[in-house]
Design goal:
By secondary structure, the protein is α+β, with helices and mostly antiparallel strands. The protein folds into three domains: 204 residues, FAD/NAD(P)-binding domain; 128 residues, Alpha-Beta Complex (Polyamine Oxidase, Chain A, domain 2), CATH 3.90.660.10; 109 residues. Helices cover 31% and strands 20% of the residues. The chain is built from 16 helices and 23 strands. Helix 2 packs across helix 15. The longest helix has 19 residues. The two termini are 33 Å apart. Pfam families: Amino_oxidase. GO terms for molecular function: oxidoreductase activity. This is Isorenieratene synthase. InterPro entries: Amino_oxidase, FAD/NAD-bd_sf, Zeta_carotene_desat/Oxidored.
Length: 517
């Protein structure tokens, strides 16, 4: 893909990535059959990119609903209310160009997303940072954060190791992985000498976004996050959230759109193995038997990808299979959603990041922004509160009890509240970007020309992370297959792949004279 500067959202320096040249779409008689295995964000993006060009797509999803880690299911509370339980809060940042482009297929104005006015970060020592008034345009975003932050002052800035911090000014993708993948996020922060409060509030929050302990997380991923949100993009740190549960707001409309394009959506259909066939393509075996396809996209989480490759012995090369088998998942995390019999105080934000409160990483008040929760709260006079513990464990019951106690510490008015009902999601299926593992992560392309990979596990040499990495690799997986058939793929967008300011890049380049190890 070639790249040139382009305009998307408010950032005039965002880059547009053009796909390989080709015809607009397949003719009716030459459309290939493609299996997309996995119905999360990556699989939905791949299926969309292929089906819009006329490919005959079958989407296989092992669960009964689409959305992957953002799926949801209906449940009934003790008071008789029917509600939707999901895997919890996710922030749709304005830098998520390709994810937001996917959602625009059914919601052109993104009316089903609502903006949260702030992203406060509270430390147990009493300090709270806010991003509501921080400028969006770099470098004023970072300078504004320092100027407005009670936890990171100018005195702290002068105490930092300036040379060790220089790489933050010149993050280049993919070079950042060559320079910092062998270093942990914690080691980098200690070398830079960030003040303790800022360490927790600004950077550990980023590492926790990967559901990882910062002592295990690659520093390259941490620097990438800094680039995406502070010095690489003018979109800022504020974000949007769906105004209804994920299925109703996002995936049900997208499933309808795909089906109108002719996609065969098969939920509740796990794929057992994939076998290459001699004249190209593969057989995809499910409980109903094998299906023949010209190409396959594997858009699975880390564990699902490992398992499917393990049960498909003819897939890939030996080194490729070894790299897949070496993939690791992050520690377990817990999402506890509580329906309370009384409201939290009116000034409580929709989302609050926390640090220093044991295993509690954030608190969401769903009835501040989610329609279903708001209707329940209005009808009952209560509130719906969600608690997250990342890199938690190993005992789920203990973590549940601590989350409840910490909620009552952070929001003391909940001490008198009765829990009407509760639901808990205890999972361990997020990828772990451990120190020194970047070179072994699989890429979109594989040893087979008819097989591509997608998902947030997949290595991508663009400044994308989390949900946006899933969406971007999904489209890239589709584009790779389409290019092989001479069909033009999806145009993609990204924040700049290097620092925005020539001066800051020049200053940051000085750090290469003393690499961090």
């Amino acid at each position: 893909m070639s790249a040139r500067p382009g305009r998307r959202g408010r950032d005039r320096k965002a880059e547009v990535l053009l796909p390989a040249a080709g015809r607009h779409r397949f003719e009716r008689g030459d459309a290939p059959s493609v299996a997309v295995v996995g119905g999360g964000i990556a699989g939905l993006a791949a299926a969309t990119g292929l089906a819009e060009r006329g490919a005959r797509v079958t989407l296989y999803e092992r669960e009964e609903s689409l959305g992957g880690r953002l799926a949801g299911h209906r449940t009934r509370l003790a008071d008789g209310s029917a509600v939707t339980m999901t895997r919890g809060f996710h922030a749709f940042f304005r830098q998520y160009y390709n994810l937001r482009g996917l959602l625009r297929r059914t919601d052109p104005a993104l009316a089903r997303l609502t903006a949260l006015p702030d992203y406060p970060l509270q430390h147990s020592g009493g300090l709270t940072d806010s991003f509501a008034r921080v400028p969006r345009t770099p470098p004023f975003s970072a300078l504004g954060f320092v100027a407005l932050s009670p936890s990171f002052g100018w005195r702290d800035l002068t105490a930092m190791d300036a040379r060790a911090a220089l790489p933050l000014l010149d993050v280049r993708v993919p070079d950042v992985y060559a320079r910092f993948d062998e270093v942990s996020a914690t080691a980098f922060l200690e070398r830079v000498r960030f003040p303790e409060a800022a360490h927790h509030l600004a950077f550990e929050v980023f590492s926790r976004s990967f559901f990882a302990d910062p002592r295990e997380l690659s520093a390259a991923e941490l620097l990438l996050m800094f680039h995406i949100y502070f010095l690489g993009s003018a979109e800022g740190l504020l974000f949007d959230v769906p105004s209804d549960p994920f299925p109703q707001a996002l995936w049900d409309p997208l499933a309808d759109y795909l089906q109108r394009l002719g996609v065969d959506v098969r939920t509740g259909t796990p794929v057992h193995d994939i076998s290459p066939v001699e004249d190209g393509g593969a057989q995809v075996r499910t409980r109903t038997g094998p299906d023949r396809h010209h190409a396959v996209v594997l858009a699975l989480d880390t564990g699902g990808l490992r398992q499917l490759v393990a049960t498909s012995p003819r897939l890939g090369s030996a080194p490729w299979r070894e790299d897949i088998a070496a993939l690791r998942t992050a520690p377990p995390f817990l999402v506890s959603r509580l329906w309370l019999d009384r409201p939290v105080h009116a000034e409580r934000p929709g989302f609050l990041g926390t640090s220093g409160y044991g295993c509690l990483d954030n608190v969401s008040v769903l009835d501040r922004y989610e329609g279903e929760a708001a209707r329940w709260a209005a009808r009952t006079g209560g509130s719906v509160v969600e608690l997250h513990a990342y890199a938690a464990g190993p005992d789920q019951v203990t973590v549940r009890e601590e989350l409840l106690a910490r909620m009552r510490q952070v929001y003391p008015e909940t001490r008198r509240a009765r829990v009407v009902d509760a639901r808990h999601e205890w999972r361990s299926d997020c990828p772990l970007f451990a120190v020194g593992t970047h070179h072994r992560r699989p890429t979109v392309r594989t040893p087979h020309p008819w097989l591509t990979l997608a998902g947030d596990t997949v290595r991508c040499d663009l400044p994308v992370a989390l949900m946006e990495r899933a969406a971007t690799t999904g489209f890239l997986a589709a584009n790779a297959l389409l290019a092989g058939w001479g069909v033009r793929g999806q145009v993609l967008w990204t924040v700049p792949r290097a620092g925005r300011s020539p001066l800051l890049r020049a200053i940051g380049a000085l750090a290469e004279r003393r690499p961090l190890r």
